[in-house]
Design brief:
The protein has twelve helices and 14 strands. The strands form four sheets. The protein has a seven-stranded mixed beta sheet with strand order 3-2-1-4-5-7-6, with helices on both faces. It has 409 residues and is α/β, with parallel strands linked by helices. It has a domain of 77 residues.
Length: 409
């Protein structure tokens, strides 16, 4: 079933600032790689996974022919609200053929096999637990001969910062944190990793590669930049530990940046990859997931250790629940169901229903969401979770804050 994370103040703010403060230096750079030489088949079915605020969704829509369809999904309804407004502002171009759904691609896409001519995902892969499993799932919903395009940061990204972080942890004998850092760095896939996963997913093609730099005037600007603050910073903090332990590590990192770069801008390298593959065969099967037993949960408060727990329901991010759970496998029947009034318009079109595949017999599940052209589709009201946005500030980057005396001993 579709699961949506609780809307928090931080998620709401991210949706408001993303296009102005993050996309130009991050999302758009990867998105341009994805769009390069992209052609949408005539009357093609397109799936945009983790579409965010609608880039490159809108650009794909411009390349679609009459009769094509684009389904755009994202786990954040706040981000989708922005994407919907962008499409609505296109006028006639945005009146037909694009549909939005608040949905996470984890643990798997809800769509049936071999439906889409084109599957795209701009910077969504690095948020998924497994590149291998995600690519196989993307390939699963693509038609034979269809194309899968995904962008992601590769091994070597943020290397300058990781090297400084590693140096600080070694110098201060933080072996526990060093192990967490190495696991974090290893999550960025190499070219060989990507090629292996593409082969397992039945995708014939390759990886396009670019490198660019992000420049920051100072260590303080680096950590306060939205691309860092809303990106890897939370994981970097978790690596260091909690409370004063974390604060101390970041004091040392700040001082290392200032010492090495001085008055020069602090530069970090980003190695950007774009997977471009044509589906030539069905993906190799993955080991089955036991949906009746304990599930692996990645606790956001400690994102480097998977814990086996039984969930009574999908928990809020960063929290662990105990109990038992029963999950069923669902299959989406088709893509769109035409209206019944025969008037030829799409106002009555709706996404197809779901049916239960496991359990006793087949049980019809109600329609996921009715679609009315490009009208604003209200999501279920979401409570704004204020508590989840309470983060411990980094004392090292508070203006006028003095270095703690205990660090001098």
């Amino acid at each position: 079933m579709t699961v949506q994370a609780k809307r928090t103040l931080k998620i709401e703010k991210l949706a408001r600032i993303y296009d102005d403060e993050i996309a130009p230096v991050w999302g758009a750079r990867f998105g341009k790689m994805l769009l390069r030489n992209l052609a949408v088949p005539q009357k093609g079915q397109v799936l945009d996974i983790s579409c965010g605020t609608g880039y490159p969704t809108v650009e794909i829509l411009r390349r679609m022919s009459e009769g094509s369809r684009l389904i755009a999904i994202d786990a954040s309804s706040a981000m989708l609200d922005v994407a919907r407004r962008k499409v609505a502002d296109l006028g006639p171009l945005g009146k037909k053929g694009v549909f939005f759904r608040t949905e996470s691609p984890v643990p798997k896409l809800s769509f049936a096999d071999e439906v889409y001519d084109l599957v795209v995902c701009n910077l969504g892969l690095d948020e998924m637990p497994s590149l291998d499993r995600a690519l196989r799932d993307f390939s699963r919903v693509a038609k034979i001969g269809g194309e899968v395009r995904c962008t992601l940061p590769l091994a070597g990204s943020f290397q300058e910062f990781h090297d400084l972080y590693r140096e600080v942890l070694i110098k201060h004998d933080r072996g526990d944190a060093l192990e967490r850092l190495e696991r974090h760095v290893a999550r960025y896939p190499t070219v060989d990793d990507v090629e292996r996963c593409m082969k397992a997913a039945g995708l014939d093609g390759g990886l396009e590669y670019e490198e660019f730099s992000l420049l920051f005037k100072s260590s303080r600007e680096f950590f306060f930049a939205p691309v860092i603050d809303y990106g890897p910073l939370a994981e970097w903090k978790a690596i260091a530990g909690e409370g004063q332990e974390m604060q101390d590590v970041f004091w040392f990192i700040k001082e290392a940046i200032d010492a090495y770069w001085g008055d020069r801008p602090f530069q970090v390298t980003v190695k950007a990859g774009c997977i471009i593959g044509k589906k030539v065969e069905a993906p190799q099967p993955m080991p089955p997931v036991d949906v009746t037993g304990p599930l692996a949960l990645l606790d956001e408060t400690s994102p480097y250790t998977r814990q086996r727990v039984e969930l009574p329901e999908f928990p809020e991010p960063g929290r662990i629940a105990t109990g038992s759970v029963r999950m069923v496998e669902l299959e989406e029947i088709g893509v769109l169901v035409d209206d019944d009034d025969g008037d030829g318009d799409e106002d009555g079109d709706e996404l197809s229903g779901l049916r239960e595949l496991s359990g006793s017999g087949l049980q019809e599940i109600s329609v996921v969401q009715e679609l009315s052209g490009l009208e604003e589709l209200p999501d279920l009201p979401d409570a704004i979770d204020r508590e989840s946005d309470v983060e411990r500030e980094l004392d090292a980057f508070t203006a006028g804050k003095q270095r703690p005396p205990h660090l001098d001993s």
